[in-house]
Specification:
The chain has 151 residues and is mainly α. It has one domain. The chain has 4 helices and no strands. 31% of the residues are buried.
Length: 151
Amino acid sequence: MGLHTNRGNGYLAAVLGGVAGAVVLMNLGIYLGIAYVKNFMPNAELEGLLPPFIGSFVGWWIGEVIGCWLALRWRHYRKAGKTAKVLAIVTPLGIIAWFVVYSTLLNWVTNKVSELQFVQLYEIVRSLSTAVFAIPLAWLARFLTKPHQQE
């Protein structure tokens, strides 16, 4: 007798796991990057942007892949590993597209609101825009690896 496998599609589990992992680990990566700059690069100017950017990129990438894989494995969906591998391949392209859109959005928002409002909106806009881009990435990865339904 084998383990029970869920016969559903797994789209919701893939999306929820991917988004949760991406947002949490991206914010953690940014926080750790900022802490690194403050502690080890106190006189940094433009090069001080590199550690938070790397933390954001790597946090989102690893977080989305691991979150998607864990959610699919936890619910016993088939092809969780294959979905995670495809997601690991397509996520960097989505992150680059997000960065272009996010930079444009930040420039537009900066011109429209005061600096105090911008500081308050910054965290929310970053997390929401990450979720908006992470959802189609996880859905696409699951779509490309969806197990065939056996009738």
